[in-house]
Structures are given as C-alpha cells and as structure tokens.
Amino acid sequence: DAKTTQPPSMDCAEGRAANLPCNHSTISGNEYVYWYRQIHSQGPQYIIHGLKNNETNEMASLIITEDRKSSTLILPHATLRDTAVYYCIVRVALNRDDKIIFGKGTRLHILP
Amino acid sequence: DTAVSQTPKYLVTQMGNDKSIKCEQNLGHDTMYWYKQDSKKFLKIMFSYNNKELIINETVPNRFSPKSPDKAHLNLHINSLELGDSAVYFCASSPGGGGEQYFGPGTRLTVT
Predict the structure, then answer these.
(1) What are phi and psi of B39, to 5 degrees?
(2) Residue-wise pLDDT tens for chain A (112 aa)?
(3) Chain B within 8 Å of A63 (Cβ-Cβ)?
(4) Any CB–CB contact under 8 A between B39 and chain A?
(5) CA distance A75 to A82
(6) What b/e sequence results for B68-90 when a residue is b if at least 16 CB atoms lie within 10 Å of its CB, and e otherwise?
(7) Cβ proximity of B18 and B77 under 8 Å
(8) What DSSP letter does each residue of B66-87 carry, written as one string?
(9) CB of A97 within 8 A of CB of A33?
C-alpha cells in the first residue's frame, strides 16, 4: 500500500501556481519524498525529490514541512501541458531492494 | 535520442499466444524495471534487475519471465497470454536502484 495520501483531484487556472499537497505521516528518517507525474497515455515522469530541505528544479519546487509529515509540490506557472496525474511517493533513495509504490495520485486539471 | 525505449508500442494478440516486449535504455543506468498499469490505472512494479541480476520479483504469474541480456536491455516474455494480461506495460531505469526512475512510453497489450 502507498504510504502517502493525496487529494483525488484539483483544479488550477492556467498561469497560476499549482500547489499539490501530500501527507506522509509515517515517513521514516531515511525515506525521501519523490514526485512523479503521468500525462495521459505517457509513461510516468520524474519531477523532483527531497529529504528535508526544500528543493527546486526547472520543473517544480518541493516544500517539506519541518516534521516531514507532509509536503507540497509547487508548479509555479501552470500551463495546459501540466494537466496530469501527480504521484507523491516515499522511499529510501538508493536502495535497490526498495520499491516505488504508486498510489492513486492527484488528477490536476489546468483550466484555460 | 530516446532515453528509455520500448517495442512494440501496441500489441494485439489472442489468448494462449506467447509474446515478448523489448526495452532498451541509453542512460547508462544499472537498474531496470517492469511495471504494469491495469485498466483502473493502478501502476505496480513487477520486476527489477540490477546489472543483470534479478532484485525484485513481485507476485507475478510465472508465465511472465524477464530476461536481461545486458544492463541496457530488459525484455519481458509472456507465455500463454490471458485476457487479464491486457494492460499497459512500462519499462523504467534508474542509477543504483534509486527512486529517480525514468520510464519508457509504454506498450499497450490487448489480449482477445
């Protein structure tokens, strides 16, 4: 079972920031938070990951609370192409025996 | 250049047939995976290989047999296909078995 809880769907206006929440209250000290997304009919796409510090890359920002029990993925200026299912996942970073367990994710609709 | 490629993209076949799906990655990663996404869109890991060694083998019927001729290739052979095998199969790769995985475009298998 997935170790994370996400809202099933969200809407965001094009050009606005999309903030996707994720709860992971049972996260272990050595587990990272990963975000992926899956655009319709495509393979999942890695977005970003972090341990406890906030992270930013060219796609998104990841804000992790101090107690690490929740996080938020931020797409700063959402476009129609950001419409996808977004998955929040926790796992140990470099452990080949650990699995990525995909939950149901959040279906993000970007509205024109 | 495509990082993770799969062939074929679509595969339609009859029950009882044997088929193979091929996967290749040119990222230099040492770990490769097969995932299955069913009609309800749940994405689940099936197998992982690290440097040609089987690492993860989920509860998958033994009709499914992965083969890794080298660390850049991971093929999936399926014997005696059943209707329930209809799904989209994704190949992925990662460096060091980490959580940052890169997925192929998927192979949509339809068993009639």
Answers:
(1) -65, -25
(2) 668 999 999 999 999 999 999 999 999 988 999 999 999 989 999 999 999 989 999 999 999 999 999 999 999 999 999 999 999 999 887 777 778 888 899 999 999 9
(3) no
(4) no
(5) 8
(6) beebbbbbbebeebeeebbbbbb
(7) yes
(8) EEEEETTEEEEEE-S--GGG-E
(9) no
Gap between the Cα atoms of B96 and B107, Å rounded? 25
CA B50-A105-A66 angle, 5° bins? 85
Q: What is the pLDDT of residue A92?
A: 82
CB A36 within 8 A of CB A104: no
Amino acid B3: pLDDT: 93
CA A48-A60-A79 angle, 5° bins? 130
Mean pLDDT over B6-34 rounds to: 96
- CB contacts of A95 in chain B (<8 Å) are 97-98
In single-letter form, the type of residue at position B21 comes to: I
Beta partners for residue B50, in sequence order: B31, B53
Q: What is the mean pLDDT of residues B21-44?
A: 93
DSSP-assigned letter for residue A5: B
Look over chain B and give the mean of its residue pLDDT values, rounded to a whole number: 92
A7 touches chain B (CB under 8 A): no
Cβ atoms within 10 Å of A50's Cβ, excluding its own: 19
- pLDDT on residue B101: 93
Rounded to whole angstroms, the Cα distance separating B4 from A101 reads 20
